[in-house]
Amino acid sequence: MTILHLISTFPTLTETFVLREIRRLRKIGLNVIIGQLRPLHRTAPAKGFEDLSPLVNGAGWFGLEMLKSLAFFSFRKPRKLAECLRIVLRSFGQPEHFVRMLYVLLSSMRLGYSLRNVPIEFVRADFLHTQALAARFLKSLLGVPYGITAYTVVVYYKLAILEEIIRGAAFLVADTRQTKRFLLSMGVSPSQVHLIRNGVSPEEFPACHGPAAAGFPVILGVGSLVPKKGFDVLFRACAILRARGIQFRCVVIGDGSERENLDNLKKNLGLDGCVEMLGYRTLEELRDWYCRATLLVMPSVVSPTGETDGLPTVVIEALASGLPVVGTETAAIPEIIQDGVNGFLVETNAPEPLADQVQVLLERPDLREKFGCEGRRRVEQDFNLDRKVEKLRDLIIHHVPSKSLSDIGEPFPQAVR
Known about the structure:
CATH class of the largest domain: Alpha Beta
Low-confidence stretches: 403-417
Number of domains: 2
Strand order of the largest sheet: 3-2-1-4-5-6-7
Oligomer: single chain
Number of helices: 14
Shape: elongated
CATH superfamily of the largest domain: Glycogen Phosphorylase B
Largest sheet: 7 strands, parallel
CATH topology of the largest domain: Rossmann fold
């Protein structure tokens, strides 16, 4: 059985959990290949996934292969191509979205043309965005069913476009109850939505009690530097802790559009001596920081534009590593952090309550150990990658047609892969 897993770029640091899932699905017997929709651009590449590189059907921006694919599907599947174009035209009133959707269609055609002789039986997409749209296009162009995993409630397309994508899916996976409620609110049949928790491998993130970082206890923050992550709230909490005379070191790993604003805030709050922004780090380096840190803070907020987190994978990774977590009550964080059991939950966008709970953990090594053990147990029980991929495998097998669709033909020379 050959499964095409669509990703936006390969290999990107912000989606390493997807790459780990692909690796695990292959380990349990599915022949997963990777369809890349656009070149890696501006985003730092992830390291440690070189074994997946031979599985990737790479992408360029525009080129001869796109022209070949356009000619191929125009002659062989004109009605299906017109069906895809009608979806794109629904965004005509939004020029930026229209251009992006048109590129996704061209990239999907290139991918479909390149893989036209591969007996693909199912297409998988993560996120209810670019990858899901490409999966919908490939269903028309290749006649292959697809499934989508949704991780957040943030949407970028018009409702009519989302309905088109959702209606065409064989199934939808929600990784949290929050996401499942969102999908159901869009009129999706309950039988079409499956709750399958995101997870990590306990072996890949062993509970560790490594050497603490030299000097003061470490408050760790991990995530893209974007408004919804709330790192400005963490910095204000750090200023409160420093005013109380608490000694600590705050380390933030990640990069993004808010880097300059956070740098300025750090200077204005006088935090240059105790807050470090390290930028992106490799998975191996991140695992090391989970072991060296005293606690993780996930200060997620609802951004001014309404964006919010789902359940950040870094929270699962930290708990698996035995690290206590202080998170906010926003998004799906309360679905894994049990207040007073494996961490603390505080109200959103509230620096002082955040500082209060961080201070408790800095001063209570016994509580940190208790939360760490409970967090590890929670991940092993409910957020285990092995259980996730087994459920996904069973769901995919259930929706794969009995006959492989491999009769698209080849009037043109085989595309270079």
